[in-house]
Amino acid sequence: MFSGSLVAVVTPMTAEGGLDWSAWDRLLDFHLHEGSDGLIVGGTSGESPVLGLEEIAQLCCRAVQRCRGKMPVIVGSGTNDTAATVARTASLSELGVDAVMLVTPYYNKPPQEGLFKHFIAAAEASKVPVILYNVPNRTAVDLLPGTVARLSEHPKIVALKEAGGSLQRAREVIEKSKVGFTLLSGDDATALDLMTVGARGVISVSANVAPRRMHEIFAAALRGDWAKARALDLTLQPLHRDLFVEANPIPVKWALARMGLIGNGMRLPLVEMSAMHSETILRAMGAAGIDMKDQAA
User: Fold this and answer.
1) What is the predicted pLDDT for the residue at 296?
2) Residue 133 a catalytic site member
3) Is 107 a catalytic residue?
4) Is residue 292 very low, low, confident or very high in pLDDT (cuts 50, 70, 90)?
5) Which of 37, 111, 228, 269 is deepest in the core (most CB within 10 A)?
6) What are the DSSP E strand ranges found in the chain?
7) DSSP-derived pairing of the beta strands 130-134 and 157-162
8) CATH no. for residue 153?
9) Position 28 in a domain
């Protein structure tokens, strides 16, 4: 159902921290034009912890209106409170989105049975398909393959975004889960490797600034043209690495500002990227073939 390069899109903000609607429209048009295979609203890259539910709903509605029938729109609706996640999922899944994405409950450190019951409760409330999201380095909890397999039996739960980057983990998820369940990488640097064992694409940070190249990489991999996919991916490896010199999405918002697509506003506790990393990001953008003058035009 979901495959290719899906962008975990940033949320453009003004210098005062408000939502920048003209920049939001510009980003949506950019991804439609450049061939992104899907758009995730209100994920980690979208600064979900500092967005209110009404703001996420507004971002969704605008994205659905602009992208319907052209590019799938997915919204992050997960929190670390099951009751809140159920309510948010029920509400956001009614806005015309193509799926919701549910992160593992962070900070609480629930056991596997708690994770299972949390996701089942949210799936029961959703009007659309559900993508699970496992990112242990941020949440301090790991959704194990056996639990994913149990969850894959629910008709609404169709995919997992796995950000660990482990080939062995990817194999286990695919082998144990229901036939047809989709694995998506949540780590740009290792995403192509996961494709070799059965993943169907990536939910990407790098696609914010190099959407056309990311689409081409995963389109090539999906049709079995591994030589082309690997050659293109090699040029993006510096970008995959260096967009994490500080916490995501600080570097990628800085890069998008250099491209003229957004301003560099964000909300505390995140702050603008340290100047010491500027040359590193610019070199990575150059290696990826990103022409900032052309993009800004």
Assistant:
1) 38
2) yes
3) no
4) confident
5) 37
6) 4-8, 38-41, 73-76, 99-103, 130-134, 157-162, 182-185, 201-204
7) parallel
8) 3.20.20.70
9) yes
